[in-house]
Design goal:
2 copies of one chain form a homodimer. In chain A, about 50% of the residues lie in helices and about 10% in strands. By secondary structure, chain A is mainly α. Chain A is elongated, with a radius of gyration of 21 Å. In chain A, about 45% of the residues are buried. Chains A and B meet through α6, α7, α8, α9 and α10 of A and α6, α7, α8, α9 and α10 of B.
């Protein structure tokens, strides 16, 4: 990657101070305007429902042709807000590098976070091809496997592989008695890890993708009802078929992820 | 731990050969009778619904006062079968060391599997105190934190922290389109890991604990329905409250597990 200058900005003074202390960026700006006035690429990493306001501010501040992207977990609303607010020819393309953990804050930053990660770029028909090439190269150079799709397709898929699992994990924890949970093993801990994610960030994610998530919940409710019925009637064959279907589907997924180097073999 | 002689036995010739090749035991017996006739402690590690038959066989083979235990995931049925079959004064006590992974086979054996693991012993009112002391010492010496409870209490708790999460993970995988799953990140993979467990073993586990698991499914269905309703009505406050409840409950669990050394800080 060519030499780049990374300018950080947060609306919180404490976060700016921490970013300076941890030397997380080339420079940390005190004002949004100083951070963005002379830049080629702006990456928003704030809760989704702050984007509309940021886009409006950026529209006044950035130079023409500046690429604006984000790392939010849904894309339909950001694209709509970008269309409404970024009217002076800043170029918006959505980014979703699928990496990170349930932990929050720049103290959890890692140099290798994006190595062999899957990164989805979202574009609309009027996308600027040159800007798309630049953004694709940016994420590739960080180590990502980059894929492009529409915002609607992104939100449908991410509901299924990320937002729905979060809802399920939270539901499982909330259905559990804290005294019983003390006997939990690694299985329970792993299957509920994502429920430890920050509630405010995830409230935004869920609210930005309600239709797709509700559809996913309905599919899970149907699966759980089928298993419930099989258990009630002690139907060994159906129970085995449901468990084996899940086992073999996940085995195929693990094999794919190992091939893509997203998982170690 | 005093010098012990570990005798292995499997009904499968291939497994016996593999056990010899991996030197997993002091000795591997060709016949069940050779494995158990002169032993102080027998540990069954087979699917739950094979126990009744094994208990009947062992009853003819073992010497009086021999301790019989198992590492099965439910305990009410094993205690019932032991009461019915182990009539010649072999002493049955249930063991459930909460350790291991979704992987199966002696090639996944690990010397340190039980270090800092939680181990539940299940007993009834007529338990032989001396045998219980011996079994407790056995698991403690392997590194376990040992707790004793009734079979009914064990099955209720394990339904909630192990069997129900397995059903949920399988349901989530089965509700997912394999093409969408290719975009899954670490969150989806972790939250569904247990669904990779062997379907035959888990069919036995679920069938041996249907009432408790159905009650758990009903609680999860209620939680998912509450979240579904909140999403449909874009009720930010309720969505946030549900996510924050799960986050804080799990944070308390992680804190407890770190204190117990079951998790690294």
């Amino acid at each position: 990657m060519p030499a780049v200058s990374v300018v950080g900005y947060s609306h919180r003074a404490a976060t700016r101070a921490k970013a300076r202390r941890l030397a997380i960026a080339t420079e940390v700006a005190e004002e949004l305007s100083d951070a963005v006035c002379d830049t080629d690429l702006i990456i928003l990493a704030t809760p989704i429902f702050t984007f509309a306001k940021y886009f409006a501010d950026l529209n006044r501040l950035v130079r023409r042709g500046c690429i604006v992207t984000d790392v939010g977990s849904t894309k339909m609303l950001p694209h709509r807000w970008a269309r409404e607010q970024l009217t002076d020819e800043a170029l918006y393309i959505g980014s979703h590098p699928i990496a990170g953990s349930e932990q929050r804050g720049i103290e959890f930053a890692r140099d290798d976070l994006f190595v062999d990660a899957h990164c989805i770029l979202t574009t609309t028909q009027d996308v600027n091809r040159s800007a798309l090439g630049t953004l694709r190269r940016f994420w590739s150079d960080l180590g990502c496997y980059v894929e492009t799709m529409s915002p609607a397709e992104h939100d449908r898929i991410l509901a299924n592989v990320s937002h729905l699992p979060h809802v399920i994990a939270a539901g499982l924890v909330n259905a559990s008695d804290p005294r019983d949970m003390k006997s939990a093993g690694k299985g329970f801990l792993d299957s509920t890890r994502i429920a430890s994610g920050p509630a405010d960030i995830w409230t935004d994610v869920l609210l930005a993708n309600t239709n797709n998530i509700v559809a996913g919940i309905d599919r899970v409710l149907a699966e759980l009802s089928a298993m419930r019925q099989a258990l009630k009637s002690e139907d060994r064959q159906t129970i085995h078929a449901l468990l084996e279907e899940a086992r073999s589907k996940r085995a195929a997924l693990v094999k794919y992820k190992i091939r893509k180097k997203e998982l170690l073999s």
